[in-house]
C-alpha cells in the first residue's frame, strides 16, 4: 500500500506533463488530489503499524546479476518521515494555489519531487535509494530556476552542484562498500551486517556522512541552503527546508551511520582536541547551530532569516545524531519532523503571505507597512510559528530540542553551553524578525490608511492551520512518534551502532 | 598451414555480403528509377531499401549465433561478436532514419552507400582477430567516414571538418600501422593469439613499448581520447548531422570493442602495472594516463563551449576517459560494463544529434544560446533532449547512470583494496559532477530562458520525432531495466570466453 505513494505521485506528475494546455487550471486540482491521496496512505500506514518494526512494502528482483533488488521497507523512522512528507506535500500545494505561470509544469515538477522523496524514505536497497536520492536533484533545479526570485539561476545551479557533489561522495562510499562486501547485494540490511574493516570505515564514514551532510546543511557546506531557500518560490522552499534537507539527515542516520559504525569510534590519538570523526561532526554541528543563529540575527531580508534559522535547526539534528544515545537519536528524528513542519510554516508566511503581497522582503521596508494590522492572520501565524521554532513547550520544537539537549548532556557535556547559547540566540532572531516585520510601525504616529493588500485566501488559512495543528500534536504527544521510533532504533539494523558506543 | 574453407568463410561473411549488395542495390535503384524524384522521396526509398538489407543482416546474425573461426582468426564468429554486430547494424538503421529529412545533399544514394560500406567495415572490424584484417576494415570504415564528414559540399565548415579528420586520421593510421608492423616483426605473425604467445613471459623490450604506444595512439584517435581528440570538435560541428551521428555512435562502438580485443588478446602479458609501488611498464599505465587526461580535459573544456555540437564532442572525450577505465582492469565484468556503457552512450548521443537535426534546420545553427525557450516551441523534442542530456550526465534512472555505476563497480571489484583504482573511480565520479554543470546549462536554456519574441513553433517531421522518441524510450528503458541487455551481454561474454 505504501508503495503507491511513489507511484501515485509519479503518475500525477506524468498526467500533469501530458495535460493539454487549455485545461491547465485543472493542474492545481490534480496536484491537490494526488498529494491528498498519498497523505491519506501515509496516515493509514502510520496508524496501522503501531509497532514501528521493519515492514516490507515491496520486494522483487531487479538486476539479479548485480544482486540489486527493488526493495521497499519502512520502519518507525521512515513512517514518521513519510507522514511528514504527506503533510508538507498537501500544504505545499495549498500555498502555491496562486501560481499562474506555466502552472502544469510547476505542479508536474512538484509531484516528481514529492514522489522521489517518498521513494528515498521507503527504499531499503541502497541502489534504489540512490536512484531516488538523485532524482530529487533535477526537479529542484527547475522549480527554482523557472519560478524563483532573487538570483534564481545562480542559486538553483549552486544548489544542484552542491547536492550532486554530495551525492557523488555518497556514491563513492556506496560503491566501495558494495564491492568490498563481494558485489552480491545492495540491500541495506546485508551491507550493514557486513563486517567492513575498521580502516575502511574510517575513511568511508566521513565521506558518506559529509556527502549526506551537504544536503542536511552541515556547516561549512551549508552555503547552498540560504541562497537556495531565498531564491525558491514558496512551495519549493517549503519542500527544500522541510523535506530535502531531511533526506540528507535521514541518509546520515540510515546509511552512513548504520553501514560504517566503526567510523565513529576513536582514532586512538588526538588532533586539535578531536579524538574521532564523531567529535569532528559534533563540533561542526554546534558551529552550525551558533553560526546559523548569529547570521540569522543580522539579516535584512526576511527570508534569509528563516533560511539561516534552518541551518541552525539542522545543526540540532546532526548533533542529535552524533550523541549516539537513544534519547539523542530519537530527538534528532523528532526534530526532523518538527523542523519540517515549522520551516514549512515559516517559509509559507514569509514567501506566500507576505512577499507575494508586498513584493518586498526587506525587513526595513516591511516595518512601515503595518502588516500586523493589515494582514493580522499572517502576523498571528508567524507569532505561533516563531514560538514553536524558539522551542516553547507545547510545540514540536520543544519536545525535540529537550530530547537532543538531554542526549548531548550525556555524551558531550562540554558542548552543552554552546547549545544553550544557540537556543537563546534562536529566541532573539525570531523576536527581532517578528518585531521588525509585523509590529515595527510606531503606534504614536498617526496611522495612515494602510495600503490595501489582497486578503489571506482560504487555502493559505487551511495550510497554516494544518501545519500548526501538526506541530501541536507532535509537541503535546511526542510519545505517538517515540513509540514507533524506539523499536526502529532497537532493530537489528542499528545493531552495529548500538554496539559501537551507546 | 590451414586449408581455406571458402564455404565457411562465405557463411561467416553473410551479413557483410548482404550489406554490400544492399548498398549496390540502393545506388542502382536511385540511378535507374529515382533520378527525377524529389530528394525526400529518394531518401525515403534509399533508406527503405537499406533498412531491409540491415534487417536481413540482423536476421542472419541472429541465426548464426555460434562459435566459428576461419583461418585461425582472420574472421571469427562468437556470440559476443554477433551481439556487437547486431548493435552496430541497429545504430546504422537509426542513423539512416535520422537522415531521411536532410536536405544537405542531392547525392542521396551515394550517402546511403557510404553509410552501408562503413557499416560493412565495422562488421569486419569487430569480427577479426588478425592485425591485417583489422587494419584494412578500419581503413574501409575511416575512408567512408572521411567522405561522409565532408558530404555537405555547400558548407565550407563541412569540407574543413573532412580535411582535418582525414589528415589526423591518416597520421594516426600511420602510427597504428607502424605499431602493427613492429608487432609483426616481434612475433612473426599478425594473429592476435600468436602475438600474445610471443610476448608472453618475456621482459618488455623497447620495440614492444613503441608498438604499444603507437597502437594506443592509433586507436586513441578513433575513440577520440585526449590528447588525440583534436579532430572531434570540428568534425562534430562541421559534418552534416547524420554523418556526425554515425561517427559519434556506430564507429565508436566498433572502435572501443576492437581496441579492447587487441589489447586483451594481442597484448596479453604486456599489461604492466600502474600502481606507484609496483610500477611496471606496459599498456595499463599508458591507458591510465590517457583516461585521466581525457576525463579532465573533456569535462573542463566542455564547460566553456557555446555550440552544442562542440559540447557533445568534448563530452565524448570525457566519456572516452570513463570508458578507458574498463581497459585498465580488463576483466569480463569490465568488458560487459564497457559494452553496456558504449551502447547506451551511443543511443543518447544519437538522440541529441537527432534533436539537433530538427532544431538546426529551423533555428539555423547549433548555438546553445539559440535554444532558448525550446521547451515551449517544441515540447516533445525538449523532453527527449532532457532525457538524453541527463543520461549523459549520469542521472538515474536513465541508462547513463546505470552504465557509470556498472563501470565503476566492475573496475573497483577487480581489486577492492587497490588505491589506484579507487582514485581513478573518485576522479571519474568527481568529473561527472562537473559534467552535470554543462549539461544543465543547456537544459537551462531550453526550459528556463524565455523564448525569443515572435519565434514560431518548431515544425518537426513526424519520422524524426518517432526516431528521437524511440531513442529516448530506449535510454529510459535500459536505465530502468538494465537486465534486458546486461544479461545477454554477460551470457555471450561467458560463452565467448574472452
Can you describe what's shown?
The complex is a heterodimer of chains A (502) and B (498). By secondary structure, chain A is mainly α. Chain A has one domain. Chain A has 22 helices and 4 strands. Chain A has a two-stranded antiparallel ribbon. Chain A has a two-stranded antiparallel sheet with strand order 3-4. In chain A, a hairpin with a 2-residue loop joins strand 3 and strand 4. In chain A, helix 1 packs antiparallel against helix 2, helix 13 crosses helix 18 and helix 18 packs parallel to helix 20. The longest helix of chain A is centred in the last third of the chain and has 33 residues. In chain A, 62% of the residues are buried. Chain B has 498 residues and is mainly alpha-helical. Chain B has a domain of 228 residues. Helix content of chain B is 75%, strand content 1%. Chain B contains 21 helices and 2 strands. In chain B, a hairpin with a 4-residue loop joins strand 1 and strand 2. Chain B is globular and about 70 Å long. Classes of the chains: A mainly alpha (502), B mainly alpha (498). The interface between A and B is medium-sized, with 32 and 32 residues.
Amino acid at each position: 500500500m505504501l508503495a503507491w505513494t511513489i507511484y501515485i505521485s509519479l503518475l500525477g506528475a506524468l498526467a500533469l506533463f501530458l495535460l493539454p494546455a487549455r485545461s491547465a487550471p485543472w493542474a492545481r486540482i490534480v496536484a491537490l488530489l494526488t498529494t491528498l491521496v498519498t497523505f491519506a496512505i501515509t496516515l493509514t500506514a502510520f496508524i496501522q503499524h503501531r509497532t514501528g518494526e521493519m515492514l516490507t512494502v515491496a520486494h522483487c528482483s531487479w538486476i539479479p546479476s548485480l544482486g540489486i533488488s527493488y526493495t521497499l521497507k519502512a520502519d518507525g523512522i521512515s513512517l514518521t518521515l513519510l507522514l511528514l512528507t504527506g503533510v508538507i506535500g498537501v500544504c505545499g500545494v495549498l500555498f502555491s494555489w496562486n501560481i499562474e505561470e506555466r502552472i502544469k509544469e510547476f505542479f508536474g515538477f512538484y509531484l516528481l519531487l514529492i514522489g522521489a522523496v517518498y521513494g528515498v524514505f521507503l527504499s531499503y536497497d541502497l541502489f534504489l535509494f540512490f536512484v531516488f536520492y538523485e532524482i530529487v536533484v533535477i526537479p529542484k533545479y527547475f522549480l527554482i530556476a523557472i519560478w524563483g526570485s532573487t538570483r534564481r539561476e545562480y542559486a538553483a545551479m549552486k544548489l544542484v552542484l552542491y547536492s550532486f557533489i554530495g551525492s557523488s561522495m555518497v556514491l563513492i562510499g556506496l560503491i566501495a562498500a558494495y564491492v568490498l562486501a563481494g558485489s552480491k547485494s545492495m540491500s541495506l540490511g546485508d551491507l550493514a551486517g557486513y563486517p567492513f574493516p575498521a580502516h575502511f570505515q574510517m575513511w568511508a564514514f566521513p565521506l558518506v556522512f559529509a556527502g549526506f551532510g551537504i544536503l542536511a546543511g552541515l556547516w561549512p557546506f551549508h552555503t547552498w541552503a540560504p541562497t537556495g531557500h531565498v531564491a525558491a518560490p514558496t512551495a519549493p522552499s517549503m519542500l527544500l527546508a522541510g523535506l530535502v534537507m531531511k533526506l540528507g539527515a535521514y541518509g546520515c542516520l540510515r546509511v552512513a551511520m548504520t553501514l560504517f559504525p566503526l567510523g565513529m569510534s576513536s582514532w586512538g590519538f588526538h588532533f586539535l582536541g578531536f579524538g574521532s570523526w564523531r567529535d569532528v561532526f559534533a563540533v561542526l554541528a554546534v558551529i552550525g547551530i551558533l553560526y546559523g543563529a548569529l547570521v540569522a540575527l543580522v539579516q535584512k531580508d526576511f527570508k534569509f532569516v528563516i533560511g539561516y534559522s534552518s541551518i541552525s535547526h539542522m545543526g540540532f539534528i546532526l548533533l542529535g545524531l552524533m550523541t549516539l544515545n537513544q534519547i539523542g537519536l530519537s530527538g534528532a528524528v523528532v526534530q526532523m519532523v518538527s523542523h519540517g513542519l515549522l520551516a514549512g510554516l515559516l517559509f509559507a508566511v514569509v514567501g506566500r503571505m507576505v512577499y507575494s503581497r508586498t513584493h518586498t522582503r526587506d525587513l526595513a521596508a516591511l516595518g512601515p507597512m503595518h502588516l500586523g494590522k493589515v494582514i493580522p492572520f499572517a502576523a498571528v501565524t508567524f507569532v505561533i510559528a516563531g514560538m514553536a521554532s524558539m522551542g516553547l513547550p507545547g510545540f514540536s520544537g520543544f519536545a525535540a530540542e529537550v530530547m537532543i539537549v538531554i542526549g548531548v548532556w550525556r555524551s558531550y557535556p562540554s558542548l552543552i553551553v554552546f547549545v544553550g547559547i544557540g537556543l537563546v540566540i534562536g529566541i532573539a532572531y525570531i523576536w527581532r524578525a517578528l518585531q521588525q516585520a509585523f509590529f515595527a510601525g510606531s503606534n504614536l504616529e498617526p496611522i495612515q490608511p494602510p495600503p490595501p493588500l489582497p486578503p489571506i485566501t482560504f487555502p493559505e488559512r487551511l495550510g497554516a492551520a494544518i501545519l500548526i495543528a501538526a506541530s501541536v500534536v507532535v509537541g503535546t504527544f511526542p510519545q505517538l512518534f517515540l513509540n514507533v521510533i524506539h523499536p526502529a532504533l532497537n532493530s537489528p539494523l542499528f545493531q552495529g551502532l548500538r554496539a559501537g558506543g551507546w | 598451414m590451414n586449408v581455406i574453407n571458402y564455404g565457411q568463410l562465405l557463411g561467416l561473411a553473410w551479413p557483410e555480403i548482404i550489406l554490400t549488395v544492399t548498398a549496390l542495390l540502393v545506388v542502382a535503384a536511385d540511378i535507374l528509377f529515382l533520378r527525377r524524384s524529389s530528394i525526400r522521396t529518394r531518401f525515403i526509398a534509399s533508406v527503405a531499401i537499406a533498412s531491409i538489407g540491415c534487417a536481413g543482416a540482423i536476421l542472419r546474425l541472429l541465426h548464426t549465433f555460434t562459435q566459428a573461426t576461419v583461418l585461425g582468426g582472420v574472421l571469427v564468429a562468437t556470440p559476443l561478436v554477433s551481439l556487437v554486430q547486431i548493435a552496430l547494424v541497429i545504430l546504422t538503421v537509426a542513423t539512416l532514419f535520422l537522415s531521411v529529412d536532410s536536405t544537405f545533399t542531392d547525392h542521396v544514394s551515394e550517402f546511403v552507400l557510404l553509410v552501408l560500406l562503413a557499416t560493412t567495415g565495422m562488421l569486419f572490424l569487430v569480427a577479426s582477430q588478425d592485425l591485417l584484417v583489422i587494419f584494412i576494415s578500419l581503413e574501409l570504415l575511416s575512408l567512408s567516414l572521411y567522405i561522409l564528414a565532408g558530404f555537405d559540399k555547400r558548407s565550407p565548415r563541412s569540407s574543413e571538418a573532412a580535411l582535418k579528420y582525414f589528415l589526423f586520421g591518416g597520421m594516426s593510421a600511420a602510427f597504428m600501422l607502424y605499431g602493427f608492423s613492429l608487432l609483426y616483426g616481434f612475433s612473426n605473425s599478425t594473429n592476435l593469439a600468436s602475438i600474445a604467445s610471443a610476448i608472453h613471459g618475456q621482459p618488455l623490450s623497447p620495440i614492444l613499448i613503441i608498438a604499444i604506444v603507437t597502437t594506443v595512439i592509433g586507436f586513441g584517435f578513433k575513440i577520440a581520447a585526449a590528447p588525440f581528440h583534436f579532430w572531434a570538435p570540428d568534425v562534430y560541428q562541421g559534418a552534416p548531422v547524420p554523418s556526425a551521428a554515425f561517427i559519434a555512435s556506430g564507429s565508436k562502438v566498433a572502435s572501443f570493442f576492437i581496441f579492447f580485443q587487441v589489447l586483451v588478446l594481442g597484448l596479453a602479458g604486456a599489461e604492466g602495472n600502474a600502481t606507484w609501488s609496483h610500477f611496471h611498464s606496459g599498456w595499463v599505465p599508458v591507458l591510465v594516463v590517457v583516461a585521466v587526461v581525457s576525463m579532465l580535459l573533456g569535462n573542463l573544456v566542455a564547460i566553456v563551449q557555446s555550440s552544442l555540437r562542440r559540447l557533445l564532442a568534448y563530452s565524448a572525450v570525457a566519456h572516452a576517459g570513463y570508458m578507458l577505465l574498463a581497459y585498465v582492469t580488463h576483466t569480463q565484468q569490465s568488458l560487459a560494463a564497457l559494452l553496456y556503457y558504449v551502447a547506451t552512450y551511443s543511443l543518447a548521443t544519437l538522440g541529441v544529434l537527432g534533436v539537433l537535426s530538427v532544431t538546426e534546420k529551423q533555428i539555423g545553427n547549433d548555438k546553445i544560446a539559440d535554444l532558448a525557450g525550446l521547451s515551449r516551441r517544441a515540447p516533445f523534442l525538449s523532453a527527449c533532449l532532457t532525457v538524453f542530456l541527463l543520461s549523459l550526465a549520469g542521472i538515474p534512472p536513465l541508462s547513463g547512470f546505470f552504465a557509470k555505476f556498472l563501470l565503476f563497480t566492475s573496475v573497483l571489484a577487480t581489486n577492492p583494496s587497490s588505491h589506484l583504482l579507487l582514485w581513478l573511480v573518485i576522479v571519474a565520479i568527481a568529473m561527472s559532477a562537473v559534467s552535470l554543470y554543462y549539461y544543465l546549462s543547456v537544459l537551462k536554456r531550453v526550459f528556463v530562458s524565455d523564448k525569443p519574441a515572435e519565434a514560431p513553433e518548431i515544425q518537426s517531421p513526424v519520422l524524426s520525432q518517432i526516431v528521437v522518441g524511440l531513442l529516448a524510450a530506449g535510454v529510459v528503458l535500459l536505465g530502468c531495466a538494465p537486465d534486458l541487455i546486461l544479461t545477454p551481454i554477460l551470457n555471450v561474454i561467458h560463452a565467448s570466453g574472452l
